[in-house]
Design brief:
Strand order of the largest sheet: 6-7-11-8-9-10
Radius of gyration: 21 Å
Number of domains: 2
CATH topology of the largest domain: Protein-Tyrosine Phosphatase, Chain A
Shape: globular
Number of strands: 11
Distance between the termini: 36 Å
CATH superfamily of the largest domain: Mur ligase, C-terminal domain
CATH architecture of the largest domain: Alpha-Beta Complex
CATH class of the largest domain: Alpha Beta
Strand content: 5-15%
Order of helices and strands: EEEHHEHEHHEEHEHHEHHEHEH
Largest sheet: 6 strands, mixed
Structural class: alpha/beta
Number of helices: 12
Length: 334
């Protein structure tokens, strides 16, 4: 198996060789599992027998240019399934019909059917339950016993940077996540808010580093609406990757952050349970939700050091190097 993130159950590796999982009672030589990506049509190099699609929200428009091209790439991928193959996904999903080829004969498995079968998971996040439902349906398609599938999910400890609680500094909880698309970002923030509520914690900080100027521009209107459940948003910079100079010059990060705060403030005005605290040096003051462009990691760390209190949760999120903020914050408190 080859996965795009380090897996805690595999000793922090992102791969497992044949026979390494034999002690878990799961087949090891019969299947080869790979996490595939659609960017540059790279998944078209794979010859699959089964395909699990967890998300069909358009992305990588720097390559695909249009949503139609994005969906067309998925159609090409699904046509590679043999007639005896299996397609597993949430079949009621908004974009599913846009990616299914005509005369699609492989057997379809709807993950909706397994939601109620998902056991209590060790990993946090509402999206984890959706992924687990897909895993159960994939096990059914491969004739793996439901008992073994459920047992495996119950033991699953999660991935690095996938709603990964990396430390509790004093009584401040630090969570790393890799989300960099509006849909996954919204789900991660919602999961963090649920974590705050369930544990009777206090303030939810979101330290978000957008990945690519081009992606942030393409989905700006969606990005600015996903922070409603956060109390504080800090954006240190945008991680450059495959960006042109034109991409960079055409995007105003301060204006982007101002739009985020306007959306957050609007929601806050409708809430009656507004509470807050000021910096340690100034004692208690009331606050409103806010978003800030911090212009670098150092400034971000200073704000967290001055304003984050015991009982707060800090969600550090993005696909770039933003996890270094988590590491530096933890080190500064050690």
């Amino acid at each position: 198996s080859i996965i795009g993130a380090n897996i805690h159950d595999w000793g922090g590796k992102n791969f497992m060789k044949a026979n390494e999982g034999a002690s878990d009672g799961m087949p090891t030589k019969k299947y080869f599992v790979v996490e595939a990506c659609e960017y540059r049509d790279s998944f078209l190099n794979i010859e699959p027998n089964s395909i699990v699609v967890t998300n069909t929200d358009p992305d990588h428009l720097d390559y695909f240019e249009t949503e139609e091209n994005y969906f067309a790439s998925f159609k090409k991928f699904l046509t590679k399934l043999p007639q005896f193959g299996s397609f597993i996904s949430f079949l009621q999903g908004e974009n599913i019909m846009k990616i299914l080829p005509e005369n699609f004969h492989p057997r379809k498995y709807g993950a909706e059917n397994s939601i109620d079968e998902v056991p209590t998971l060790q990993v946090l996040g509402s999206f984890q339950k959706l992924n687990a439902a897909c895993a159960i349906e994939a096990a059914k398609a491969l004739k793996i016993s439901e008992k073994d599938a459920i047992a495996s999910l119950e033991k699953y400890k999660g991935l690095a940077r996938r709603f990964d609680i990396v430390a509790k500094v004093g009584n401040i909880t630090i969570i790393n996540d890799y989300a960099h698309h509006p849909t996954s970002l919204k789900m991660a923030i919602h999961s963090a808010r649920e974590y705050v509520k369930a544990n009777k914690l206090k303030k939810l900080w979101v330290v978000f580093q957008p990945h690519q100027y081009s992606r942030t521009r393409s989905f700006e209107s969606k990005f600015i609406t996903v922070f409603k459940e956060a109390d504080e948003v800090l954006i240190p910079n945008i991680f450059e990757s495959r960006d042109t100079q034109d991409d960079i010059l055409k995007f105003d990060i301060q204006e982007f952050v101002t739009k985020i705060e306007a959306d957050m403030t609007y929601v806050e005005k409708k809430r009656s349970n507004v509470w807050g605290r000021g910096p340690k040096k100034r004692g208690q003051i009331f606050y409103k939700k806010q978003a800030r462009f911090t212009n670098g990691f150092e400034n971000t760390l200073k704000i967290l050091d001055d304003y984050a209190y015991d009982g707060d949760v800090v969600l550090v999120i993005g696909a770039g190097d933003v996890h270094k903020i988590s590491e530096a914050f933890i080190d500064s408190k050690s």
